[in-house]
Amino acid sequence: MRLRSPVINSEGDDFPSLFLPFTHLPLRCHSSYGAAMVERKIIFYRWMCVNSRPPFVPHTVATALAKKIAEDEYAAMLEGKDITTAVHVISPGDAATPSRFRMLSLRSPDNRPLQWEPGADLAPLPLLDDQYPADVTYITLWPNGYAAQDSYRDAPRLGRLAHFLAKKENAHVGFDPLYMPDVYERLQDIQGQIRAVQLSLTRPEYMSRANGVLGTFLPAIYGHSAPSVKVEVGVGKNSKRDQYLAQEADEAVFQIAESAHELVDRLIIRGRSRRTNQMETLNLMTERLQEVVYLPSSKAAPAFPDPDATYAAHDAAYQSFSDRRVLERATQALLSRSH
């Protein structure tokens, strides 16, 4: 059965020409949609092989993983000290078509939310040992090196997929975030003249993965126990007009944008533009290469979008960005910075 479902785009971006028009997408549906619509950001990455032995080939890895899960359903799970991840192969793809995954962030029994009712004390949710509260994201990997996922506040990030595939399949892949094509140029315009940085994390326990780069801004006093961290570093309103943050902070901003992006929920940089001699503000989280869409909810889980609609939104955004050469220009900017 084929249905048609709307994907609606947001307004008010600095790049209006990049928006997809209002589109009705043909979808392959296995369940009825709910009446509600769910907002998501379709965010794009560039994937690359981290280890050439063996080389990372999405459809080969997906096919092998699907076979393991078919033989043992627990092969879909990877338990760790801090996080538990589950990955399912929705479609393995091939050399010409994308591979589709569903990834879930699972809460262990010690980290499950509590329930409450009037007249009663707090109590754990009544779940069996093999039942987990879960947050889910849908992921598409194209054979030519691009990836997309639907992002929201609690969505598991692609670093989890890389870790999962390395442990389960000895398949080593890395994901670099793609930004609007002029982001690095705008950062370089204020490099050396940054006056303030705002940084926040909602998962401070992941800090150890950032190889120390976040230590430039985050005092050790916060530790891993804080539920969230928000820091603002600046030279102060009453400082001299030509006083800026140290060079170490400049370089840390670039490194966070590139290698610690999965740890950060907010990264705003304010500095003086060499081109205009005016103060400029750059919010890197809103400068990601992304498309905001409204998707029909799944009837089984109304808080989450229908999977078919989500994958169709991935494809529509990918096609639009490809047709406008935005993916190509964003990749060129990433590669020029990396080299």
Protein model, in words:
The protein is an alpha+beta fold and 339 residues long. Helices cover 23% and strands 32% of the residues. It contains six helices and 16 strands. The chain has helices spanning 58-71, 158-169, 183-190, 247-259, 307-323, 326-338, and strands spanning 2-9, 23-28, 33-49, 77-79, 84-91, 99-106, 114-115, 123-124, 134-141, 146-151, 173-177, 194-201, 229-234, 266-272, 279-283, 290-298. Strands 1, 2, 3, 4, 5, 6, 9, 10, 11 and 16 form a ten-stranded antiparallel β-sheet that branches. Strands 13-12-14-15 form a four-stranded antiparallel β-sheet, covered by helices on one side. β4 and β5 (84-91) form a beta hairpin. The longest helix has 17 residues, at 307-323. It is globular. It starts with a strand and ends with a helix. The model is unreliable at 1-34 and 204-211 (pLDDT under 50).
Give structural attributes.
339 residues, alpha+beta, ten-stranded antiparallel beta sheet, four-stranded antiparallel beta sheet, 6 helices, disordered N terminus
